[in-house]
Amino acid sequence: MMDKLKFTIKLSSLLSNFSNLQTKLLINRLDRNNIPNHIAIVMDGNGRWAKKRGLPRIKGHIEGTKSIKRVLEIAYDLNIKYLTLFAFSQENWDRPKQEVDGILKIIRKSLQNEINQLNEKGIRVYVIGNFKRVPDDIKNTIKNVQKITKNNKKMNLCIAFSYGGREEITQAAKNLAKDVMEGKMKILDIEESIFRNYLYTKDIPDPDLLIRTSGEIRISNFLLWQMAYTEFVFTPVLWPDFNEYHFLKAILEYQERERRFGLV
Ligand code: IPE
Ligand code: IPE
Ligand code: MG
Predict the structure, then answer these.
(1) pTM score, two decimals?
(2) 64, 104, 124, 225 - which has most CB atoms within 10 Å?
(3) The pLDDT of residue 4 is above 70
(4) Ligand 1, atom 12, residue with closest C-alpha
(5) 220 Cα to the center of ligand 3, angstroms
């Protein structure tokens, strides 16, 4: 029994040293002059991760918060300026109440617990989405975290919460129309650069790289306007299994792409 335990421990430390080594090797292969300025992630596969283990879906969401910490840390170390995480979509409100309540609880707790550390590290936090259905206490926490971190410059963390790309574009159109009606804007002056100021992401540059986990090859209503020229990397890894190694691999894949923006 003892021997078996020793062997298991040895093997797992060997494996973790091996994956540390693999991660280091990948870091050395990175082109430091071509690190994406903005990485967006659709963190998908929490439910399937839990199901595979016979656990309730909420356990997958809880485990997924560990991946968020891992990714945030390595993005910070790599000096990535913008990281946007799709945490909860407009459509996700229609999931069973028990799951929605569970996710809200995780988001509430994570924001409250991490606020000081994020601030100490110089991370500015943005939360984007339509908060009409969000409970008041979470709305206040969101306001608070954005206010406290608003002068931070080291890195920007943007959390898409209760977010839908079409909803974002629709509310932008509505607010723009209102400004025209009120005489604050002329129809002839409306250009892309004006329209984008009405989006939730008005202060955030477009993503250079989108990563989606869990093997789904779709964008599920995420940043529709902003991703016009984003490079997409899809991985079958489920979000709670996603780690530094997978993150670096996605950046390396990005670095092999030739971005043409419609030119030759
Ligand atoms: C992503 O994981 C997290 C949220 C959508 C909140 P899912 O919950 O979609 O997990 P799967 O796709 O069902 O495995
Ligand atoms: C997208 O994942 C939303 C988040 C990761 C928060 P979903 O699991 O909701 O998307 P679909 O249903 O697979 O398109
Ligand atoms: Mg999903």
Answers:
(1) 0.94
(2) 64
(3) no
(4) 45
(5) 9
